[in-house]
């Protein structure tokens, strides 16, 4: 860059784009930080704020995030939904969409709080805390994946701005960010009086203490109450107003509840004498700045940046965290020394109104940004580094996807290879009874899973390793208990469905039902497909190989199925040992509450998921049961083809999940366009799989049926149609309707498809054999899919109408 070019760039306004997780005009967005930074930057004469955009999730996305991150208490739930990896991706996609619409319009962008994926343009991060710092407060602990994403984000930034020195030190020490790119620029008070405050300090009036905080425990509200109680017990005239919560009435304590009206909050600042903020964890402390701006000396704890904000002995007093006696003595000192209190308040007001304003923050921030703009080459190098990091992250995601497919493929292949061994060891008819037993077991496997196998991954995706391990261990306890309770029912149902099919059918049913206690959902939720493969999938696949050897060498079907049960238990045991070693000091603190009442409570919480899974599984079992009772001559051939199409559906399931995610991201206004693009690719893959089955189907049937089960080519075609229409129906319900929250029509459309398919099954089977049976099922699935499409069109007719 020449000197003339450098001069022109130095004199040109600094073009900045801002992103925050909410509306910049809303003072509640990021606790007012977003509005403060925007106002401060706009006040700078050499800055052009090109855009200030929200990257907050849509309403549907918020619902999905809340569903995936259920926590108690509610405050922790809200925080977890923002730190979810899916929320981070959606924020980043929204940002990237804005940058695509505004190419080359800014010199840099600034992310206000939260974590994003690295951007393809120069960017800065403004934060008041890090995940490493937040880990000191247990409810705010995040997963290792979230911590890694934050490090990738901070290391890729051109500049990292922190509100306080504590956060800057964490960014440098814990994340390895270059100190020359990291700046503590302070924070600004969001509420200041219009003129210099004047407060009459009467020695006779009681000291009026103010506490402001929604999170009573984290902000130390209990410390304030106890300190005031001790002061009053010692004869000190003191009263406290607690803002943010309601509580029991007490002598000298007034509970004001949450206050969102800024004018009312300003009135409270104006009529009190001291601000108490004995926080146990505090990212920065904007409320302290507000109190200081109104002339209130602050009594604070020594955590985070609070000692930087409050000059001990000059603008307030700093006490050790949780030291109730120190806080009591500090309040007493201010109550008994009105002159000291007045002078502290004046100095606090002066400091807040000069050093801690958003204009001052913006001046410090823009000075660093302008300096960074002059370092064009280093910026480009970091951009290249960010691109490389993004490519590596993409490679990691592809590797993880490969592991997920590997788990599905290994288990599916092992199950398919076991079929011919069992057919040869027994007979086609006897194997058909075993297949019916497996179908019955699948229904009870859903029940035993208690919903954890459906949504458990989302529950633990963004909690600490210890909390995730505890959730798994409790679920294992609950699922084992439930398996023991339902086992007699499984036996009875299998004997009834197979017309006394014998011990082998019962063992097969119990083996499939036992999969409900498996650990797969845990490894999916923690993003550990490799551990899932090694600790659970490989032992189970090895068990299937051992079962094949037993069946071929001894002819004992009972021993072969027993080997698969042992392998399943070994995989679960190995996985549990690995999971139990995670968390604090590699030891999980088992929570109390493993008795009948907590178990019943968990069962009630999971009951809607259990019910929906049971209905779906029952509908999948009924065709095989009807064929066994009403069309017994077709049961062997139908059971084989039914087993193949089920395995095909399992193999395709990762593609369904990818399509579901691809449709979920981005703004809803673009949903129809994404639906067309994703649907085209999805159905292309499904069509290829169906065509591949038509080509390879005859050979596959001969191999899996050990040459003892004959099926016509027309049945191969019908099975390919079942595979295709099953994926059509899954896409319509999970990706199309599910992503839009259109859930009400789904059970009705499924019921319609079931009525059509089951109604045609027997007459079609009687007329056209196994081809007719499969064709009836395909027609039922097609009818349900068409119904889903009609429901989508009706529900979205106005939502996505073309606007001229």
TrEMBL record:
Keyword Transmembrane listed: yes
Keywords assigned by UniProt, alphabetized: Membrane, Transferase, Transmembrane, Transmembrane helix
Output the InterPro entries linked to this UniProt entry. Answer: Glyco_trans_1, Glycosyltransferase_grp1
Transmembrane as a keyword of this entry, yes or no, is yes
Xref: Pfam families: Glycos_transf_1
Task: Give a GO molecular function annotation for the protein.
Answer: glycosyltransferase activity
SUPFAM superfamilies (alphabetical) = UDP-Glycosyltransferase/glycogen phosphorylase
Q: Where are the transmembrane segments?
A: 401-425, 431-464, 476-499, 505-524, 545-570, 614-641, 682-705, 711-728, 740-762, 768-795
**Residues annotated as domain Glycosyl transferase family:** 204-350
Q: What is this protein called?
A: D-inositol 3-phosphate glycosyltransferase
What is the species of this protein? Microbacterium hominis
Provide the taxonomic classification: Bacteria, Bacillati, Actinomycetota, Actinomycetes, Micrococcales
């Amino acid at each position: 860059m020449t000197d003339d070019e450098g001069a022109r760039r130095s004199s040109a306004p600094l073009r900045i784009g801002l992103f925050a997780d909410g509306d910049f005009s809303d003072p509640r967005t990021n606790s007012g930080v977003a509005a403060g930074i925007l106002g401060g930057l706009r006040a700078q004469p050499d800055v052009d704020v090109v855009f200030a955009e929200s990257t907050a999730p849509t309403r549907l996305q918020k619902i999905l995030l809340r569903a995936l991150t259920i926590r108690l208490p509610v405050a922790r739930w809200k925080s977890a939904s923002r730190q979810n990896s899916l929320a981070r991706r959606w924020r980043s996609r929204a940002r990237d969409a804005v940058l695509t619409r505004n190419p080359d319009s800014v010199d840099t962008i600034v992310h206000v709080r939260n974590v994003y994926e690295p951007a393809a343009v120069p960017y800065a991060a403004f934060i008041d805390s890090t995940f490493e710092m937040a880990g000191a407060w247990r409810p705010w602990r995040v997963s290792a994946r979230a911590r890694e994403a934050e490090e990738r984000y901070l290391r890729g930034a051109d500049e990292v701005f922190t509100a306080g020195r504590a956060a800057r030190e964490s960014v440098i020490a814990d994340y390895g960010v270059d100190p020359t790119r990291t700046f503590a620029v302070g924070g600004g008070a969001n509420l200041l009086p219009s003129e210099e405050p004047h407060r009459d300090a009467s020695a006779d009036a009681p000291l009026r203490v103010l506490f402001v905080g929604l999170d009573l425990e984290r902000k130390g509200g209990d410390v304030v109450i106890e300190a005031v109680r001790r002061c009053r017990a010692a004869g000190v005239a003191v009263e406290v107003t607690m803002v943010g919560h309601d509580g029991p009435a007490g002598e000298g304590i007034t509970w004001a509840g949450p206050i969102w009206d800024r004018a009312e909050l300003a009135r409270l600042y104006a009529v009190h004498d001291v601000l108490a903020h004995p926080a146990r964890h505090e990212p920065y402390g904007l409320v302290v700045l507000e109190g200081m701006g109104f002339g209130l000396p602050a009594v604070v704890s020594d955590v985070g940046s609070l000692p930087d904000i409050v000059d001990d002995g000059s603008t307030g007093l700093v006490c050790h965290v949780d030291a109730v006696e120190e806080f009591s003595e500090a309040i007493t000192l201010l109550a008994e020394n009105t002159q000291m209190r007045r002078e502290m308040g004046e100095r606090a007001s002066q400091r807040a109104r000069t050093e801690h304003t958003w204009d001052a923050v913006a001046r410090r921030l823009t000075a660093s940004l302008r300096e960074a703009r002059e370092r064009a080459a280093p910026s480009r190098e970091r951009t290249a580094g960010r691109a490389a990091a993004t490519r590596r992250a993409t490679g990691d995601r592809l590797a993880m996807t490969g592991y997920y497919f590997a788990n599905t493929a290994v288990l599916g292949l092992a199950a398919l290879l076991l079929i011919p061994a069992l057919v040869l060891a027994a007979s086609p008819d006897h194997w058909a009874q075993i297949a019916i037993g497996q179908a019955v077991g699948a229904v009870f496997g859903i029940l035993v899973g208690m919903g954890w196998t459906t949504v458990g991954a989302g529950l633990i995706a963004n909690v600490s390793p210890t909390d995730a391990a505890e959730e798994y261990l409790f679920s294992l306890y609950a699922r084992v208990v439930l398996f023991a309770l339902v086992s007699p029912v499984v036996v009875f149902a299998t004997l009834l469905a197979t017309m006394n099919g014998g011990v082998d059918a019962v063992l097969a049913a119990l083996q499939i039902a036992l999969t409900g206690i498996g650990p797969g959902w845990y490894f999916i939720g923690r993003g550990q497909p490799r551990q899932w493969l090694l600790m659970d999938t490989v032992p189970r696949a090895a068990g299937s190989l051992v079962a094949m050897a037993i069946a071929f060498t001894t002819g004992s079907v009972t021993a072969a199925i027993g080997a698969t049960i042992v392998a399943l238990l070994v995989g679960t045991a190995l996985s549990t040992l690995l999971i139990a070693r995670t968390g604090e000091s590699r030891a999980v603190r088992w929570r109390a509450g493993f008795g009948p009442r907590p178990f019943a409570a968990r069962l009630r919480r999971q009951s809607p998921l259990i019910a929906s899974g049971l209905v779906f599984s029952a509908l999948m079992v009924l065709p095989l049961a009807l064929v066994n009772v009403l069309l017994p001559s077709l049961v062997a051939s139908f059971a084989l083809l039914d087993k193949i199409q089920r395995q095909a559906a399992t193999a395709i399931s990762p593609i369904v999940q990818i399509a579901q995610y691809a449709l979920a991201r981005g703004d809803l206004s673009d949903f129809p366009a994404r639906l067309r693009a994703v649907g085209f690719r999805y159905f292309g893959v499904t069509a290829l799989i169906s065509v591949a089955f038509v080509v390879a189907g005859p050979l596959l049937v001969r191999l899996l049926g050990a040459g003892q089960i004959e099926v016509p080519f027309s049945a191969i075609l019908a099975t390919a149609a079942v595979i295709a229409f099953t994926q059509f129906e899954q896409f319509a319900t999970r990706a199309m309707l599910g992503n839009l929250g259109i859930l009400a029509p789904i059970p009705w459309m499924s019921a319609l498809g079931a009525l059509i398919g089951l109604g045609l099954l027997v007459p079609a089977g009687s007329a056209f054999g196994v081809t007719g049976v499969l064709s009836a099922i395909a027609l039922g699935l097609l009818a349900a899919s068409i119904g889903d499409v009609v429901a989508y069109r009706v529900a979205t007719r106005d939502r996505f109408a073309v606007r001229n």
